[in-house]
Every structure is written in C-alpha cells, then in structure tokens.
Design brief:
With about 280 residues, the chain is α/β, with parallel strands linked by helices. It has two domains: about 190 residues, Spore Coat Polysaccharide Biosynthesis Protein SpsA, Chain A (Alpha-Beta Complex), CATH 3.90.550; about 70 residues. The protein has eleven helices and nine strands. Strands 1, 2, 3, 4, 5, 6, 7, 8 and 9 form a nine-stranded mixed β-sheet that branches. A hairpin with a 2-residue loop joins strand 6 and strand 7. Helix 8 crosses helix 10 and helix 9 packs antiparallel against helix 10. It is globular.
Length: about 280
C-alpha cells in the first residue's frame, strides 16, 4: 500500500472539526500520519483535536500561540511542519482544509487516479457547496485543484518545492507542476462537502475583488482576464461581480504589487491562456 501523510491547518473550527475528524477516521484507506496544526484557536478546537489524537495514534496535533504574527492563510504554517525530512518517506502528501466532510472512499479514490495516470502530480476533489437546490458542485477548470483538497505525489511535491505561502498558492503549485511536465486534475466523481464556501464571510463582491487581485499576483494575462470577466457577467452578482473582478486585477497594477509567481512561471501561464483564447491545444482548460 502507498504511504500517505496528510496535513490540515485549523483555527477556531470547533463547529466543523468533528465532521472532518469523523470523515478521516472512517476512510477505507487511512493516511499513515495526519498532522493537524491548531493555529492559535480560542475556542474548543484544541480540546477536540487532542481527544481525537488520544484515540487515533496516527493523528499528530501541534498547538501554536494565538498572539503570534501570522501570515496570510493556512500555508503560512503548513510548510513549517512539512520539511523534506517529514514527507520524503511517504508516497503522497494530502493537504486538507478544516471545514470539509467527505465519504469513506475519498482517499482511496484519489490514490486510484495516481495509479491510473503515472504523470498525475496533483489530484483534487470537486467541492460541493450549499445552494438553492442543496449541495451543488462548484465549477472549475479541469486542471484546477482547489486548495481545500489536494493530493500530491511526493515526486511532484518535491519538484515544485512544496507549497508557497501567500495569496494564490493553489494556482501557483499546479501551474509549476504543469510547467515541469506533471498533470493536475480535479475529478468530478470525487467529491467533498465544503461547509464554508469561498467568499461567504466577506461577501461575493469582496471575494471577486480578491480573486482579481490574486490573478494579478499570479501573472494572468490582461486579455484573458477581460474575457474571464465577461464570462462571469452571467453569474450573480452579475455585472457588479465582473466589475469587482477587473477592479481587483487593476488594483494590483496601481499598487505595483510584486508578483507571487516567477517571471518564468508568468510567461508559461500567459502562453497557455493565450493558446486557449485562440482555441488551440492548451493545458489551461
């Protein structure tokens, strides 16, 4: 059996952690080691995690102080607990958010995809989020693997240098992987329920603005962004959402924010985006 290590950053997740723990302990194929980082929680998260670790020796909990300086998002702490000496003895690395639940077959299904495709470097589940008709799949390009659920082959994880802290990390990692010859893909038949949809806390308009700014940091083509905004105009909040997306993108230029991606990666991203716009074969689909 392949060896798999998982890691999850969590902060003030007492309402949702029990569901994630139940999902992980019910897996038909369990990970060999699950590192959970309590990132300064002020609620009962620490108590819940410690209880789970006592019952399951493969769960390893780390507690960080709340009053420390924190970077953006969970990736600011993830790589501190995933040095090469920690993950290099495993075949796969699974990165999970704390606000998920999923069926007992999820890890088994992800591992099966790597067996089917030796060039697969990053595999993800399609997220289901609450909508008017119940749990609905979130649209995403085939190559994109949402940051909430990502499984990496160790070969790919090492090649891309692990995860980059900061905005847009979950696009930078897969783009680097594609540039290095790995395939990345989300599989519609593999699902996870995302109990805190992206943008829920700050509102959809703010979420679109942030998405636009993230696209600038990653190095998206301005032409591609314009087309993307026009396509987004048919989805709520319709014109306002598209305007917010473009405003966030332009904001990066006005602020002269440094790019998160390397010049080589920006060139690769824009080349693939332009190929897609011209209806040519592209990895960006």
């Amino acid at each position: 059996m392949p060896r798999c290590i998982a890691i999850t950053p969590a902060r003030d997740e007492e309402q949702l952690l029990p569901g994630l723990i139940a999902s992980m302990t019910a897996q038909r194929i369990k990970v060999d080691r699950w590192i959970v980082i309590d990132d300064g929680s002020a609620d009962r998260s620490a108590e819940i995690l410690d209880a789970a670790a006592r019952e399951n020796p493969w769960i390893e909990v780390h507690h960080l102080p709340r009053n420390r300086d924190r970077g953006f998002g969970g990736e600011s702490v993830v790589m501190k607990f995933l040095p090469r000496t920690t993950w290099e003895n495993y075949d796969f690395v699974l990165r999970l958010d704390a606000d998920l639940t999923f069926g007992p077959e999820m890890i088994e299904s992800l591992l099966a995809e790597f067996t089917r495709d030796p060039k697969l470097g990053i595999a993800g589940a399609v997220l289901l989020e609450p909508g008017p008709s119940g749990w609905e799949p979130v649209y995403q390009p085939e190559f994109h693997t949402r940051g909430a659920v990502k499984m990496y082959s160790s070969k790919c994880f090492g090649a891309i240098g692990g995860l980059q802290a900061g905005i847009g990390w979950d696009t930078i990692d897969e783009t680097q992987a594609m540039m290095l010859g790995f395939r990345t893909r989300s599989f519609p038949e593999i699902n996870a329920r995302h109990h805190r949809p992206q943008g829920l806390a700050g509102g959809l308009v703010r979420s679109r603005f942030n998405s636009g700014y993230t696209a600038y940091l990653i190095g998206y083509s301005p032409i591609f962004m314009l087309v993307r905004a026009l396509r987004r105009a048919v989805y709520p909040p319709r014109l306002i959402g598209s305007a917010a997306l473009l405003a966030g993108f332009v904001n990066g230029y006005l602020r002269r924010s440094p790019k998160s991606a390397s010049p080589e990666l920006v060139k690769f991203i824009r080349r693939e985006q332009h190929r897609r716009l011209m209806l040519r074969e592209s990895l960006w689909r």
